[in-house]
Amino acid sequence: MSTVGILGANGRMGRALVSVAKEHQLPITAATVRAGSALTGMDAGELAGCGKLNLAFTETSVAALALADIWIDFTMPEAMLVHLELAVQAKKALVIGVTGLTDQQYAAVQQASKHIPIVWAPNMSVGVNLLLHLVQTAAKVMGQTADIEIIEAHHRFKKDAPSGTAMAIGHQIAKALDRNLADVAVYGREGMTGERDQKTIGFATVRGGDIIGDHTALFADLGERLEITHKASSRSTFAQGAWRAALWLQNKQPGLYSMQQVLGLADLA
Ligand SMILES: NC(=O)C1=CN([C@@H]2O[C@H](COP(=O)(O)OP(=O)(O)OC[C@H]3O[C@@H](n4cnc5c(N)ncnc54)[C@H](OP(=O)(O)O)[C@@H]3O)[C@@H](O)[C@H]2O)C=CC1
Ligand SMILES: O=C(O)C1=N[C@H](C(=O)O)C[C@H](O)C1
Questions:
Q1: Positions of the chain with pLDDT under 50
Q2: Which residues does the entry assign to the active site, renumbered to this chain (predicted)?
Q3: In 3D, which of 35, 231, 1 has the Cα closest to residue 128?
Q4: What is the pLDDT of residue 269?
Q5: DSSP bridge pairs for 151
Q6: Is the N end or the C end of the chain the one with fewer CB atoms within 10 Å?
Q7: What is the pTM of this model?
């Protein structure tokens, strides 16, 4: 079986990935922290709060990438760009959960996937990936007359908005309605906005406390409304999905794969 390493293993998702590995006895062989981090040498399990794993944090480098076959990256966009280069140099597969990517940063993921196998997904939970299908059906049935709004809520520490998941929901709905999201997206409202243009897709962002991640797609018509909601209650749901993606990547050819493919949902009607 292939071995797996975690990049940015001290982050919130990094710690969840380490804990899931310990709980399910998954093949974790490396955990890295940023170069120069004071955490270097500390035990990854102890820092994750799941007990000693006898796995010391190493500094991220091309040499460190030799410690595992497949790497999981839940860091930040700038760090991810460095990790892409290291993984291409070391010829290692990557699972990337980083959100808030610019078009250029996403293009770098696409470019790297010509050389190595990559799964990138803004949300690794089963429920959200199912929701991405459900909203297409809802859009096709109600979208010509209903107003569509996407509402997301996350913890106070989150750096990007709207969430990567909210953007993915928006893209799926826009695609189902043959609209271009960039043309119809409205990110927040203030002042005398005028009446709502039915063709728009609105986004609303809530940030507070320790909310793990809530997403609602609202289809509001006159006389009725449909709300499709997903609520994550633990980061381990994302971590389990990322582990599933990592093990799925074993022996895959270079290419950019989706969580829909990992979960076998790509062909759902
Ligand atoms: N796809 C999915 O299912 C999910 C995606 N996410 C996404 O994952 C990402 C991480 O989230 P979260 O774990 O909450 O974030 P954290 O801030 O807790 O962790 C970020 C990690 O990235 C490292 N890092 C940040 N900047 C740099 C840098 N410039 N160079 C090297 N290392 C860096 C941090 O190291 P240090 O501590 O040294 O700064 C830390 O290890 C976000 O984009 C989030 O949206 C989150 C949950 C689920
Ligand atoms: O930052 C987070 O925490 C999360 N980010 C992802 C996103 O931006 O969609 C997924 C999840 O909701 C948690």
A1: none
A2: 154 (proton donor/acceptor), 158 (proton donor)
A3: 231
A4: 63
A5: 204, 216
A6: C
A7: 0.98
